[in-house]
Amino acid sequence: MLYAAAPPKQLIVIDPGHGGFDIGAQVQTLKEKALALKTATLVKEYLHKKGYRVILTRSRDVFISLKKRTTIANDTKSKLFVSIHFNSFRGQKPHGIEIYYYNKGSKWRQNASKKLAQLVLNGMITATGAHSRGVKQGNFHVIRETQMPAILIEGGFMTNPGEHAKLRSQAYLDKMALSIANGIDKYLKS
Q1: Does residue 64 carry a pLDDT above 90?
Q2: Nearest to 18 by CA among 60, 50, 80
Q3: How high does pLDDT run on average in the chain?
Q4: CA-CA distance, 97 to 157, in Å (whole number)?
Q5: How many domains are there within the chain?
Q6: FRET partner for 128 with CA separation of 20 to 30 A, picked from 2, 84, 134, 143?
Q7: Has residue 4 got a pLDDT over 70?
Q8: φ, ψ for residue 132 (rounded to 5)?
Q9: Which residues form the MurNAc-LAA domain (predicted)?
Q10: Is residue 154 annotated as a catalytic residue, yes or no?
């Protein structure tokens, strides 16, 4: 009896924003680069459990150029690219999660990126109870220069006292990471 080979596992690139000398936002002792890496590592673990292959653009506290991040995604021909960031603002009021996609170029990629963004956002809002700031169009290098569906997540405002406290909680980051992995899984299975 002949068995069909199992289909190859789909590859996803997760991009923890910032790193090395590029701290990103910092509020008190909380640094965006560390928060992004911690969240991305958790997302990777959850995606592995679901049977996906995952590459992180960085797995430790090092600086990686924006060009290098997109080259990693494009050269590996990954199915999706997901960049993880956290917001900050001059005031303490703004709060919530927003996700960006690039709305130019191929219609297929625009629509696929927007759909991925919406599925991930819906899951994150349901899991965390955070305020939804919606899916938005953005012209960030990492979502513009990648060739596959790509999104950039802003997982909450480090400058909002309530969100700042939540972002310090391992349980909250865990919920957030699982919801991102579930959104990716839902997208790839749709």
Answers
A1: yes
A2: 60
A3: 96
A4: 8
A5: 1
A6: 143
A7: no
A8: -90, 120
A9: 70-185
A10: yes
Confirm whether 5 is domain-assigned: no
Q: Report phi then psi at 128, rounded to 5.
A: -100, -20
In a domain, residue 158? The reply is: yes
Given 32, 98, 154, 163, the catalytic residue? 154
How many angstroms separate the CA atoms of 113 and 82, rounded?
A: 10
Strands 150-157 and 97-101 come out as antiparallel
In a domain, 4, yes or no: no
pLDDT grade, residue 8 (50/70/90)?
Answer: low
Does some domain include residue 57? yes
Residue 26: CA atoms inside 13 Å, Cβ hemisphere, count? 11
Domain that holds residue 150: 11-189
Answer left, alpha or beta for residue 55, where phi above 0 means left and psi between -120 and 50 means alpha.
beta
Tokens of 142: 């990492």
The tokens of 154 are what?
A: 């802003």
pLDDT score of 95: 97
